[in-house]
Design a protein that fits this description.
Elements lengths: L1 H24 L15 E2 L12 H11 L4 H6 L3 E9 L5 E8 L5 H10 L7 E5 L2 E15 L12
Parallel strand pairs: 1-5
Antiparallel strand pairs: 2-3, 2-5, 4-5
Length: 156
């Protein structure tokens, strides 16, 4: 009986020693910490990025800055170019990409207008120590030959 008890105590000591060694080798322990240099791009966040002034201001910006390319006008092309971009932690626009092309110079014009935007209010997520500012991917349709009257819809 005492031999069995001795074996159990020895096994428990070895397991405890092994766990302590693992904890010492892994300075973070078993917890995951948020890195200050987090480069993850999120698509859904609690507080998404926002153009300064809201959707109405974004609509006005697009109406005032998008130029309908002459080539597209000549051919009579109308439609939307879907553009994807990242709103960085400081609000500037990066990694502008065309998701759905329209052609005839419309794609290049959409990219130009997005790249020329002023800094956005960056996206954030509530955390234990307050809001955490994140890099967020945003998609936006740019209209050519179509009135912006109905899109984006603004509510008051």
């Amino acid at each position: 009986m005492s031999f069995c008890r001795y074996c159990c105590q020895l096994i428990v000591r070895q397991i405890v020693t092994f766990i302590i060694c693992l904890l010492l080798l892994n300075s973070n322990g078993f917890t995951q910490k948020l890195s200050l240099s987090d480069t993850t791009v999120y698509t859904i966040v609690e507080h998404p990025p926002e153009f300064p002034g809201g959707l109405g201001a974004l609509k006005n910006y697009l109406q005032g800055n998008v130029r309908y390319p002459a080539e597209a006008q000549k051919v009579g092309i109308k439609g939307r170019v879907f553009v994807s971009f990242i709103v960085e932690k400081d609000g500037h626009i990066a990694d502008v990409r065309v998701l759905r092309e329209l052609g005839y110079g419309c794609d290049e014009e959409a990219v130009r207008v997005i790249k020329a935007m002023i800094r956005w209010k960056p996206g954030s997520q509530s955390g234990i120590s307050g809001d955490v500012i994140l890099r967020v991917k945003h998609n936006l349709p740019i209209f050519f030959g179509i009135d912006y009257t109905y899109y984006p819809r603004t509510t008051k």
